[in-house]
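Assess this one:
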Amino acid sequence: MRFELNYGRGGLALDLPDDWDISVIRKPPMPVKPDPAGAVREALARPVAARPLGEEARGMRSACILICDITRPVPNALLLPEIVRQLLDAGMAAVNISILVATGLHRPNEGAELEELVGDPWVLK
């Protein structure tokens, strides 16, 4: 039996013996929002069991935003600009907003890879 696993930026073919009893478990398809940026704004405005980000940030001097490293597919280009904008709108100075790439035991993400990871030149600057 042949399987194609998501791996890296592509796939990895995996051949398994036909006599193995194999169960494939897949996650259900996720609905695609017609306005992803609007969905992010809505989620930040109406979080579960917390005040909106702008309210939480008001009066705070600094913020550190943690993001996963390049090994995790996260739409940072969609998320980070709105998060940073809301922190700025709450009165926080841009110089006091840090983004920390949580690499764990992985190597650092630098240069073009960091640009790809952050996904937005304005946020990267």
About this structure: The radius of gyration is 19 Å.
